[in-house]
User: Which sequence fits this backbone?
């Protein structure tokens, strides 16, 4: 059981990295990866929201949608709940932890429409995880997102100082760099299973 | 037959209603009061977010004024006296004069005056050039001449003339962004009333300065001996002017053998 949870966690961080392997949440990945501290802020905020979202959507699916045979409503119900949840978290943070609210800044409301958050909640259901496994999985995915953001922010700050060909400057070279970082992440496929001997 | 459809609608509506009620209640219950004074002050600041006041930006300064962590209403250099008066009116205190400042580049190592170590072919920014042996000029205190300050200036006040950055005091608003950008730190902010400046930042010994730059201060002490008010001292092989004593008589300018002391039209005193 413990081994399985570790596997889910590491799988989320490295093997099934949402940004670099499943191509979810590309918008913030390209949008706010210009500076390392912004990338960290976004990564932490996404991880936090993923955990909250899973904690709410998993019970809703298990205890409301399944007994009523309304599983097909999961996407729309989850979007609804996540959007409201992010707003709620924002209000609470503003009131009680203004320091955290300030440092997350504009990223918190941006996450409302982040497909990686919706993706992880739906995948947790599709993979048939129980509540604990779902929480661990969202933590792993969030950390994976943070890792990808940080790595890419580092890569990008190097690119800014390089004389790239004029036609590639700006978005094109960023996309090429993103694809190369994604290629590098393919090297992790199977690594975690082999280390744990599963 | 209608039951599943109604059930779906009902459940979604219920979830939405719960969320709506929760958000409405929490937005009232957990509401945070916005500071009205800060918003009013923010409105009369110029919004350049230059950081000349020492805060993170116009918002930061407005907030600091509003919550009384500072009572200096005259910190906004770009806004000048008129902004200071508006802020003082909002806070109900006496307006203090803003000491307006201009930037100047303390280097006269123009093309031909200073020797080059090598032919720099890399990216044309000062920060990049500075990474390879402190730039291509022999003098490590020289203006690198690739215009990082020019690009950061919000008012296009800086131009490159003959390989050295030059600040147009008419356009300069004294925000100090160029000063913070310069990798060699040779851009200085001076009060707008200054008449004479030392246009060199070189702290090397006179003999070695002489070898690679014809315009650099060689620390010959002539200005120090000449100054009738004792305003100039040579520290670390570089002439420095004490502006509380300087009257702008220009005696030093005439005796400087390398012409690194400048007066007259260099600073015109006019602002805006």
Assistant:
């Amino acid at each position: 059981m413990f081994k399985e949870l570790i596997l889910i966690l590491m799988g989320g961080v490295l093997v099934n990295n949402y940004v670099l392997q499943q191509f979810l949440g590309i918008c913030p990945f390209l949008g706010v990866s210009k500076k390392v501290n912004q990338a960290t802020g976004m990564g932490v905020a996404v991880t936090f929201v993923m955990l909250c979202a899973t904690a709410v959507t998993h019970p809703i699916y298990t205890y409301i949608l399944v007994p009523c045979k309304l599983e097909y409503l999961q996407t729309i119900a989850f979007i609804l709940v996540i959007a409201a949840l992010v707003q709620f978290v924002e209000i609470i943070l503003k009131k009680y932890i203004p320091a955290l609210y300030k440092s997350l800044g504009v990223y918190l409301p941006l996450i409302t429409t982040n497909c990686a958050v919706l993706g992880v909640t739906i995948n947790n259901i599709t993979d048939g995880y129980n509540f604990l496994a779902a929480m661990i999985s969202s933590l792993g995915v969030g950390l994976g997102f943070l890792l990808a953001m940080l790595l890419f922010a580092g890569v990008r700050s190097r690119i800014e100082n390089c004389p790239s060909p004029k036609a590639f400057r700006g978005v094109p070279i960023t996309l090429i760099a993103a694809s190369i970082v994604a290629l590098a992440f393919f090297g992790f496929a199977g690594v975690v299973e082999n280390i744990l001997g599963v | 037959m209608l039951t599943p459809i109604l059930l779906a609608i009902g459940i979604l509506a219920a979830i939405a209603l719960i969320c709506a009620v929760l958000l409405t209640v929490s937005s009232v219950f957990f509401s945070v009061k916005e500071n009205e004074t800060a918003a009013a002050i923010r409105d009369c600041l110029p919004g350049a977010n230059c950081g000349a006041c020492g805060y993170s930006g116009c918002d930061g300064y407005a907030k600091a004024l509003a919550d009384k962590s500072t009572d200096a209403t005259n910190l906004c250099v770009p806004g000048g006296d008129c902004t200071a008066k508006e802020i003082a009116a909002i806070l109900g205190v006496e307006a203090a004069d803003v000491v307006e400042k201009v930037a100047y580049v303390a280097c006269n190592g123009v093309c031909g005056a200073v020797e080059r170590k090598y032919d720099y072919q890399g990216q044309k920014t000062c920060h990049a050039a500075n990474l390879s042996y402190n730039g291509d000029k022999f003098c490590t205190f020289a203006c690198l001449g690739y215009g990082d300050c020019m690009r950061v200036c919000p008012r296009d006040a800086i131009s490159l003339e003959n390989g050295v950055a030059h600040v147009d005091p008419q356009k300069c608003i004294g925000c100090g962004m160029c000063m913070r950008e310069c990798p060699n730190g040779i851009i200085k902010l001076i009060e707008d009333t200054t008449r004479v400046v030392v246009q060199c930042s070189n702290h090397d010994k006179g003999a070695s300065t002489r070898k690679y730059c014809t315009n650099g201060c060689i620390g010959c002490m002539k200005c120090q001996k000449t100054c009738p008010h004792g305003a100039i001292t040579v520290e670390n092989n570089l002439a420095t002017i004490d502006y509380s004593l300087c009257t702008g008589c220009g005696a030093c300018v005439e005796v400087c053998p390398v012409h690194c002391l400048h007066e007259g039209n260099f600073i015109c005193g006019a602002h805006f």
